[in-house]
Write a structure and sequence with these properties.
It is a single chain. By secondary structure, this protein is mainly alpha-helical. It has a domain at 34-164. The chain contains eight helices and no strands. The termini are far apart. It comes from Thraustotheca clavata.
Length: 190
């Protein structure tokens, strides 16, 4: 008794292609990324590296012996504090509108990449730790630039996020003041 096992007949090329998963290009995978999640990861990395740069520049300020070193450290402290405060803007609603008004360049690909490149090229002027931090900041600037500029839904995601957190406008009606002169000081009682 021989039992033959049936073998499937060879399929045509189109049928076989329909059974295999379609190849997706790298650009298509990039466009399919969930931008809110990626932006959250970028914010965490920005916060960690900003805090690292803040610590590094504070340590540099403490250990420096030259006037140039003090100025370098103060510059790096200001830039890293700016980055940390910008990334924490959602935690401070009173500051969020000011951040949007005065740090608007951080919402653009060119502005954010420029800040990271300035920090990344300034830090290596100090020592080997600065070189490592500087290279990481330059790479982070490039990654932020690519995501902000090239991702098709980044602008829409940020617009939706800012609409949710938009501050409520309060209208204050002031009473009419009498004209006291140039200083608006009340008249002195004699």
């Amino acid at each position: 008794m021989s039992t033959e096992v049936p073998t499937p007949a060879p399929t045509k090329g189109t049928e076989a292609a329909a059974l295999l998963p379609a190849k997706v290009s790298a650009t298509e995978k990039f466009k399919r990324l969930e931008i809110r999640r990626v932006n959250g990861y970028l914010r965490i990395v920005n916060l960690i590296l900003g805090a690292l740069m803040l610590w590094y520049s504070g340590n540099l300020l403490y250990n420096t012996t030259t006037y140039k070193g003090v100025l370098d450290a103060l510059f790096l402290i200001a830039q890293s504090a700016l980055l940390v405060l910008f990334e924490l803007r959602d935690n401070f609603p009173n500051v969020a509108q000011g951040m949007h008004d005065y740090l608007g360049f951080m919402f653009t690909a060119y502005g954010r990449a420029t800040l990271f490149l300035v920090m990344g090229t300034w830090a290596p002027t100090q020592d080997t730790t600065g070189i490592v931090i500087g290279v990481v900041f330059c790479i982070l600037g490039l990654i932020n630039f690519i995501f902000i500029l090239a991702h098709p839904s980044y602008k829409q995601a940020m617009a939706d996020q800012s609409e949710v957190q938009a501050p409520v406008a309060v209208v204050v009606v002031e009473e009419a003041k009498t004209d006291y002169g140039a200083t608006d000081a009340p008249a002195k009682a004699v």
